[in-house]
């Protein structure tokens, strides 16, 4: 019996989404990464989320089995990101230009 493409390479059928969030400084991007990284996906399968920082850009990559799972994860992340940005604006010293 021949294996399907999904059986041979499960990543081939996954939905992908990438979000790049620019910050005023590398320090601000690192603070956001530190604040958002501890939040693991509650579901034990079907979704993978990776956060990285390059210079002053926070990059988030998702890979999911289903559109619904991807949507819920991205929506939750954006809510958390919004809270982090509001907190940084209120309490963090301004980034040096």
UniProtKB/TrEMBL annotation:
Provide the assembly information.
Component of the EKC/KEOPS complex composed of at least GON7, TP53RK, TPRKB, OSGEP and LAGE3; the whole complex dimerizes.
Q: Which family does it belong to?
A: Belongs to the CTAG/PCC1 family.
Record-given protein name: L antigen family member 3
Which UniProt keyword terms apply here?
Answer: Cytoplasm, Nucleus, tRNA processing
One GO cellular component term of this record is: nucleus
Q: Which organism is it from?
A: Champsocephalus gunnari
State what this protein does: Component of the EKC/KEOPS complex that is required for the formation of a threonylcarbamoyl group on adenosine at position 37 (t(6)A37) in tRNAs that read codons beginning with adenine. The complex is probably involved in the transfer of the threonylcarbamoyl moiety of threonylcarbamoyl-AMP (TC-AMP) to the N6 group of A37. LAGE3 functions as a dimerization module for the complex.
Q: Example GO biological process term?
A: tRNA processing
Compartments reported by the entry: Cytoplasm; Nucleus
A UniProt-annotated Pfam family: Pcc1
């Amino acid at each position: 019996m021949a294996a399907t493409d999904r059986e041979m390479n499960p990543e081939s059928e996954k939905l992908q989404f990438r979000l790049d969030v620019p910050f005023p400084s590398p320090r601000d991007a690192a603070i956001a990464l530190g604040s958002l990284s501890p939040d693991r996906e509650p579901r034990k399968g079907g979704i993978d989320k990776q956060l990285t920082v390059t210079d002053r850009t926070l990059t988030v990559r998702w890979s999911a089995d289903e559109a619904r799972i991807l949507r819920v994860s991205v929506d939750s992340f954006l809510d958390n990101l919004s809270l982090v940005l509001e907190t940084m604006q209120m309490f963090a010293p301004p980034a040096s230009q």
